[in-house]
Amino acid sequence: MVDTQGAPTRQTLIEYPCDFPIKVMGARVDGFAQAVIEVVLRHAPDFDPAGAEMRPSSKGNYLAVTCTFRALSQAQVDALYRELTSHPMVKVVL
Prior knowledge:
Layout: E1 18-27, H1 32-43, E2 53-56, E3 62-71, H2 74-86, E4 90-93
Antiparallel strand pairs: 1-3, 1-4, 2-3
Helix pairs in contact: 1-2
């Protein structure tokens, strides 16, 4: 498939808009959860930070932050994923 400018587009089984959970893992250090929430808010300004779920690893060295936001498009999800994966505090994004 191609878009209106002739660029290839990626097909997805996700129907937008939808609630989209994204899990971000990193070292359990001061400021990690806040940094993740700030990135999510840049891409999804209506995200409620109070809805972020946090879970430490079994040994307490890592923290997983799950943010469920209202995704409007695949482009929005891709941009958020790119920014999160390039953040120096982030180890894994699912």
